[in-house]
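Entry, Tuesday afternoon. Goal for today is a structural model of the target with flavin-adenine dinucleotide bound, before we commit to ordering more compound. Inputs were pasted exactly as handed over by J.K., no edits. I checked the ligand SMILES twice against the vendor sheet because last time a stereocentre got dropped in transcription.
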Amino acid sequence: MLQQAKPPREVIGSYWEASVDQPRLDRQLMGNALFDVAVVGAGYAGLSAALKLARSGVSVCVLEAEHVGYGASGRNGGFCCLGGTTLDQHQLIRKFGLDEARRFLAYQVAGINLVAQRLEAWGVDADCHSSGEMVLAHRPRDVATLKSEADFLKENFGMKARLLSKEALGEEGYGGAGFHGGMHVPYGFALNPMKYVLALAGELRKSGGSIFGKSPVTNLTRDGERWHLETEHGYVRARKVVLAGNGYARENAPKWLYGRTLPAMSSIQVTRPLSNGELADQGWTSQTMAADTRVLLHYFRLLPDRRFLFGTRGGIFDTESALTTMRKHARSDFDSMFPAWTDVETEYSWHGNVCLARALTPFVGAVPGMEGVYAALGWHGSGIAMASISGEKLAGLITGALTQDDLPAPVRQPLKKFPLPLFRKLYLQGAYWFYSWKDR
Ligand SMILES: Cc1cc2nc3c(=O)[nH]c(=O)nc-3n(C[C@H](O)[C@H](O)[C@H](O)COP(=O)(O)OP(=O)(O)OC[C@H]3O[C@@H](n4cnc5c(N)ncnc54)[C@H](O)[C@@H]3O)c2cc1C
């Protein structure tokens, strides 16, 4: 008898892409066009800005190098949660003061609420689950840190974070190796990010906004009263421009962008669906999204179809061999954290770029020295809520409904250039070595 071939250990590709029908491909820009506002980038930030503008009666187009959701908005872990910076609350208070840190937190919460309201108002089933987020102590000493963090958050921000002992974690279905305690943060939920970004684009089209796919903006120059955005087969002239390329931005469009962002890779693996027995063996049955206390954190959640999503930072380079090594590392971290599932196949695996800024905070506002050009980027790996609300706020700045002071101080710091931008990836390598040592 012929032996049946074993199923492949790993299939490369995005689970989110597989979870939706072939998305509509928007036509390429051919010839020349005139709009009030041209947005560069069809992710949450660009589409949110364009949607708000279109609904305010502004003629707006989005120019996208590939297609809607090609960037991080179609590739992320789907944790619609607090974030947008790598500074913690203590650092934010030291840098901006308590009032601005509170405004910034309120802004993040408003971003989460905005995404939830949109899905509800548009009747989109984006496979949502999870009420809040669990932070899991990966070392015994982090339990005390979580406790003092919970006290600090309550005292300064009125946040009611709930602490869980190691035993309570087991009882509530957070079974894994090396989780010593946890803190439940009462904000956020999980979603299918691709379904959300496609719905956003659909709403924009319905509201009269235009999207051009396969239309990378290669140059941006001033032409009298307007900006001239060049693409392969045509150009757009617009009074105002929004730069929303985030970790996929082309640094020469405009040249101002050069050296001001640092794209960093994040990678995700999704297993095949787990059986009841397998879930019980590992003791992970919780629907709550979770991350560990490492600086180079792992983020994970049980999807509604009982697959397990596991994300971690990516490598530095995207050569085939570097990507293979990255996937092996991610899988080996998964195996050591969830030892009962070492035989469970990874079915999907992909990666994408997040965007870091030198100040470690995002930037939402007018680009200094380029009248009429605005930018919204630098979400530091947490952009579902932040890019969504910031796109809307940027539209408010453009129409004059808002001023820069209406935004919290942490998002108002203009993007500074990294020193020796050519070597940015090496900084990242250095930071990864340092933090992997600190995370031990
Ligand atoms: C693997 C991974 C996991 C993540 N997990 C989470 C998570 O769980 N929760 C969370 O909140 N965030 C997460 N993030 C981050 C989040 O996905 C991003 O912050 C967010 O999607 C950024 O949205 P954006 O609109 O700013 O940019 P993007 O979605 O990256 O869109 C930018 C778009 O601009 C286009 N573009 C760039 N330059 C040009 C040009 N010159 N001309 C035309 N088009 C251009 C690109 O093609 C791209 O489509 C994750 C990111 C990755 C990569």
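The longest helix spans residues 98-122.
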